[in-house]
Amino acid sequence: MTTDSQPGASSDLALLGLMQLVSPALPIGAFAWSQGLESAFELGWVKTEADLQEWLEGVLEDGLSRCELPLLARLQTAWATEDAQAIAQWNTWLQATRETAELSDEDTRLGAALVTLLRNLGLLPDANLIPNQPGYITMFAWVAHYRQVPQRQTLIGFAWAWLENQLSVACKALPLGHTAAQRITEHMRPLLVTAVEVALQREDHDLGPILPGLALGSALHETQYSRLFRS
Q1: What superfamily would CATH give domain 35-221?
Q2: Burial call 126-158: b when 16+ CB within 10 Å, e when fewer
Q3: Per the similarity annotation, which family is this (predicted)?
Q4: What does the alpha-carbon distance between residue 177 and residue 182 come to, in Å, rounded to a whole number?
Q5: CA gap 66, 82 in Å, rounded
Q6: Chain-centre distance of CA 146, in angstroms?
Q7: What tens digit of pLDDT does each residue of 22-68 get?
Q8: What Å distances lie between residue 82 and 88, 144, 153, 172, 179, CA to CA?
Q9: What is this structure's pTM?
């Protein structure tokens, strides 16, 4: 029977904690949102497997690697040092990058849902460290710190959860089979690693998403007549 005192047990527990955090079974509703992708289908911007792969590559390179991933690293460090000012600063910065009501609502609702779950599990941090309206990424970083997940693995886990979410959206809203989704996964896996490496090297002045197409799609999704995902 494995115990915390045995070699490798701590890292194994950290890995399991990360797997729990990125699992679609985590009851926070993360897979209810399409992040503009459903609108891209409706508008005809993404029609094929190749289109979807190109879309995901662009969001990863110009979005996650410039925003969510480097902010996760900064927030995990801030939680580790109990720097309430930095936590609040980056939480506010993230909220300011959400260019549509839908994207902002997703971040704050998922953050609130994760706070509720952590409260029920007895895993919340000191109340003085939690910023007003903590976003999903802010609380994700807290759990990763609490679980002692290495920073690089935190980013890899978040990027993987994002990819799974987007492919789940595509399988539901686009004629995309599961084998096609796995082909895209095989293509994207090394790109996720590269995006994490880039994110960890970014300076503060180089942060911020450059995704006008996604923002427009998200804005149009808010009034889309028929939709499967939340707005």
Answers
A1: Urease accessory protein UreF (1.10.4190.10)
A2: eeebbbeebbbbbbbbbbbbbbebebeebbbbb
A3: Belongs to the UreF family.
A4: 9
A5: 24
A6: 18
A7: 988 888 776 676 777 887 888 889 999 999 999 999 999 999 999 99
A8: 11, 14, 21, 41, 44
A9: 0.90
**Residue partners of 90: CB distance under 8 A and separation at least 6:** 71, 74, 75, 78, 138
Which residue, among 72, 97, 75, 94, has the nearest Cα to 86 in the 3D structure? 75
Contact 112, 124 (CB under 8 A): no
Structure tokens at 209: 């998403």
In single-letter form, the type of residue at position 175 comes to: P
10 neighbors 207 (Cβ within 8 angstroms): no
| C-alpha dist (Å) from residue 174 to 19, 159, 170, 215 | 27, 22, 5, 20
Where exactly are the structural domains of the chain? 35-221
Q: Yes or no: say if 180 and 217 are a contact pair by the CB < 8 Å rule.
A: no
Cα separation, 171 vs 229, whole angstroms:
13
Distance CA 69, CA 32 (A): 21
